[in-house]
Design brief:
By secondary structure, the protein is α/β, with parallel strands linked by helices. The protein has 6 helices and 14 strands. Strand 8 and strand 9 (about 155-160) form a beta hairpin. The protein is elongated, with a radius of gyration of 36 Å.
Length: about 260
């Protein structure tokens, strides 16, 4: 029997059908096995763990067919202590049954920092230093004396530098008002350059704070002031206080600001 006759014979087609069926059954079996192994189309949606207390997590995951693991703990004053503040995967994600969700919890115990020494520093320096330590300026009390900080208080009591306190605490300051000379009127810096403003402020025992240029990108040595904080209509300042300003190289911006100020007046 030659090849052509063999291909037309029943024996060939019988073997061909058997081989084809065997291959199809094998492929179907592989696909079925993979579906079973990977739990194909069997998923669960990750719930929102954020805001749940760590002590309640075991009860919370009941019925969700998920595992959880606390992998980090940080301290954030603005969030509730002892609760979940972050998770991976995020809420709403679709995952396999039994998947572990990794959690970050807000610490129950406050982080401690050492109290810095603010005495003899200016109010501006004290504020910056407190922020560096993660502390805040509380109440300010002005008394007769030189402008630097005279005393530092925590919860109404003097606090010694180096004392460990909760991060985020407020520190009250007793500040000298400048030898009883009273409040200094806020000078009008509109239209002045930075150099001119510094001279005016220096003559009044005030200092220039931050100066931010606008989008015109003008050279700051020739740009002019178009806004200031505090403004000229606000209460006077104590000696050594600072004034923050905005500067621009645009005459149009200056004119618009002047027009707006005249309208308010």
């Amino acid at each position: 029997m030659n090849l052509k006759e063999f291909l037309k014979s029943k024996l060939f087609w019988r073997h061909f059908l058997v081989a084809t069926t065997s291959v199809l059954l094998f492929l179907w079996g592989c696909a079925f096995f993979l579906d079973m192994y990977t739990l194909h189309n069997e998923h669960v949606e990750v719930p929102n763990f954020q805001g749940i207390y760590a002590k309640d997590l075991d009860k919370f995951v009941e019925g969700h067919d998920l595992q959880y693991e606390v992998v980090d703990s940080i301290y954030n004053l603005k969030l509730t202590k002892g609760t979940v503040i972050d998770q991976d995967p995020l809420p709403g994600a679709t995952v396999k049954h039994g998947r572990t969700v990794y959690l970050t919890v807000n610490a129950i115990l406050s982080q401690k920092v050492a109290m810095p020494n603010l005495v003899d520093l200016s109010l501006r320096q004290s504020t910056s230093l407190l922020e560096t330590y993660g502390l805040k300026v509380g109440m300010l009390r002005y008394v007769e004396g030189l402008p630097p900080v005279i005393e530092q208080l925590y919860k109404g009591q003097k606090i010694v530098p180096g004392t460990m306190i909760d991060k985020g605490s407020e520190i009250d300051l007793v500040v000298g008002r400048g030898g009883g000379r009273g409040l200094i009127p806020v000078p009008d810096l509109f239209g002045l350059t930075i150099t001119e403003a510094r001279k005016i402020l220096s003559s009044s025992n005030l200092i220039l704070g931050s100066f931010l240029p606008d989008a015109t990108g003008q050279d700051t040595t020739i740009a002019k002031i178009y806004k200031q904080t505090p403004g000229i209509n606000e209460e006077g300042l104590y000696s050594g206080a600072s004034i923050d300003v905005l500067i621009t190289g645009s005459e149009e911006v200056l004119e618009n600001e002047k027009t707006a100020a005249d309208t308010l007046d």
